[in-house]
Amino acid sequence: MSFDDHQEKVRVSFDELSTVATPSEGAVGPTPVTLPVGAKSYGNINETPDEPTMAKEKSSLFLQAWFYLGLAGLLGALAGWGICEHAFVDGDGHRWGNLWLLPLLVALMCVGFAIAESVVERSLRKAVLRTGLGLVLGIVLGFLFDSIANVVFSILVAISHAAGVQTRHNPAFWIARGIAWMVIGAAGGVVYGIVGQSMKKTGYGVLGGALGAFLGGVIFDPISFATHGGATSRAVGFGLLGMFTGIAMGLVESALKDRWLYVTSGPLAGKQFILYKPVTTVGSSQTCDIYLFKDADILPQHATLEVKGSRTHLVAAGTVYAAGQPVRGMRVLENGSVISLGRYGFRYQEKQR
User: Is the pTM of this model over 0.85?
Assistant: First the structure.
């Protein structure tokens, strides 16, 4: 296009060019533009974008082990009490309810723990297997540990009487019951670990179960005084026994874990998987330790996590990314490593020593 003959041409003199300011030597990036006060800014194509910020992770309460184990323990204990209460006799009498109450309490608490974990992991197969195993082991160990608890309680009561404790209103009597009930809580922890196929998990379960049951035992007699004894006191006392046992197991697990995977994205976001075993399998098969469902890109056994000494090795069978890079074969994970499998995201963490 040509200029119109009548349009004035623009001319720039050498004097005008000499007044143009140039950026100082070493300056990087565009020269900032200063706007008048009150003027609106809609951005500039030369502006450098802000650094991305990581969203704050929010973990659902329902995925916290202390919550779902506590709820499961409460419901399991109440179920055991409800089955046996009508056949339970106060005082010197004795019926089948007296014999079965604590063993069935332990068994149904263990069933509750098994179902709760399986529901959180969305695995029906695991729920069925764990429920059957938890019920059988719970009954067997419930009777065994109930006998041990009765012996412990009798010894402690005799010691308390020798020390001058004559009534159940004395706190020393409450502590004696709490110590005896620690045996009952430990039984639940043993079954919890066996069902989870981990000796380390068994240890955490025993410690947490004993602590929770001790608390339940200590407050059992005060509750009976407040409710004037009978069925109500047993319902409240045994319900709290189950709840405290589950809560303590979950809290002990979380406090003592040394390495784990935190799910950052996907259907299980907010859940943490503690790496108890030397080898942890990950995949779309319900036989895997970490079951990843509803993702066609996940193989039945997609990856394994192998703990060797102080290091954790990620072994990929399918497509796996760590720190945005594809994992070929094996890779050693560092604390904070970000892992992606299909639509699932994880962050590997380990306790700092």
Answer: no
